[in-house]
Amino acid sequence: MKCKYNFLKFSLTFEIILLTLPAMLSRAQEDMVFNCFSVMAGKNATSDGSVMFAHNEDDYGDQLVNWYKVPSTTHPDGEMIDMKNGGKLPQVKQTWSYLWLEMPVMEFSDSYMNEWGVTIGSDQCLSREENPDLTLGGIGYELREAMASRAKSSREAVKIGGALIEQYGYASSGRTYCIADANEAWMLSVVNGKHWVAQRIPDNEVAIIPNYYTISTVDLTDTLNYYGSPDLISYAEKNHWYDPDKEVFNFRMAYGDPENIKHPGNVVRHWSSINLISEKKYRNDDEFPFSFVPEQKVTLNMLFTVLRNHNEGSEYDESEGYTKGNPHGFVRTICSPATQYGFVAQLRSNLPGEIAFVLWLAPFRPCVQPFIPWYFGISEIPEGFAAGDYKTARSSQFVEIENLNEFAKGHKFPEFVSYAKKVDENYGKEIEGIQQKIQTLENELLQSQDEFENRVLSVFSSEPQQAGKMLTEYTEKLIEQSLWFVQ
Asked: Each residue of 396-450: pLDDT tens digit?
């Protein structure tokens, strides 16, 4: 009788799984197109006069994040870069040093900060283009490294990126590259094929992007604020995506995938974040602006809070204050089950770049990790944050990893992953204490930042190597503190 009961119980359970599996898979597949989230703040919109760029990198499945520092390099004449899709990209004579957050196997997940402060991340945006014009297979993975290694400003990076798109064509549905330096912030939106547009974020405003295009009206004659394909508007008209007799040209509506634009996975994240920062409060069915004036000057702490958001306190908090479980298993949130790391780039123009350019990094889910400052001037990457070196990473980027645990042996990143997943099991009871510890540490770091940087600055001119050592040891010490959280 016991066996019969267990068999019936198993049969019923299996039937339930079969009935619900399509919906579960459909939702998982839908969520996979909503990878990443970004906020960019102009230098006159922030409390310290820096340009700030906040980003959550979202990618589903078990992943690994490596940290590398790539040196500046002089390349021989005729050097070529083998591109993933079969083409070859001529290398330039001089490439700049950069910090590189690399994810093995992934094609669109890496982030960069170079020696000029040019910082790049991206957000997937689906386009409606189904017949792309590609040359030599098109460019994809190589685009952001080309911009990061060659550009001395975000504006120059946009021009480099746009030229490469026009030459090769973009080999994916679409994407927006967020590009910032200490003076300007830009969004470069690319479409499958050879069409693109870029818009500068006004210095006194903030721009937010989930995973749909946010650039709307475009004026390509205004080269202070816009760049783009010369035939951007005529191509849309030819494809019947835009009718000049009925409407003003709107890039987002002309080129964006219609379902992607209205999907709640995008709308809710945009709505929740804009209301955390903007002086004007929006309804979720309002048309959100490309950029807006913040309610108050943006601080690092404010952006940390945005990247940790799960719609708490709103009608979209499906965990109901964590009483129904952890917040990562419900409607798409900014801090999500797919978040692999979060960062806030603090880019300043009043200090040497080694000190002025800082990536405040939180490995894996930022809601359970403190943001730790990684200064561009660190002389080396702390032990345990890279598998191999940057040269092997480049050559093996798309080599299949048979066993991630074996590949990542001795790596620190899996420790952060395991810790976050453990917290998820009892999130409601643990998160308040965790957040108190995080806030205490981050407040200490923010309050002591000026004093520490002045000490480094005092030796920077006469002993640059000592300054680099100070920055490295500081980061290493803070990493050890952050690892206390995962014990």
From this structure: 999 999 898 899 999 999 999 999 999 999 999 999 999 999 999 999 999 999 9
CA distances to 3, 313, 419, 430 from 321, in Å:
41, 7, 21, 13
Phi, psi of 341 (to 5 degrees): -165, 155
Encode 336-364: b = buried (16+ Cβ within 10 Å), e = exposed: bbbbbbbbbbbbbeebbbbbbbbbbbbbb
Strand partners, 74: 94
The model's pTM is 0.93
Nearest to 91 by CA among 108, 77, 106: 77
pLDDT tens readout for residues 59-96? 988 999 999 999 999 999 999 999 999 999 999 999 99
Distances (CA, A) of 131 to 171, 195, 250, 302: 11, 12, 21, 42
CA distances from 210 to 84, 88, 142, 221, 414 (A): 26, 32, 22, 27, 26
CA 217 – CA 206 distance, rounded (Å): 17
Strand partners, 374: 359
Q: Which amino acid is at 70?
A: V
Is 354 in contact with 375 (CB distance < 8 Å)? yes
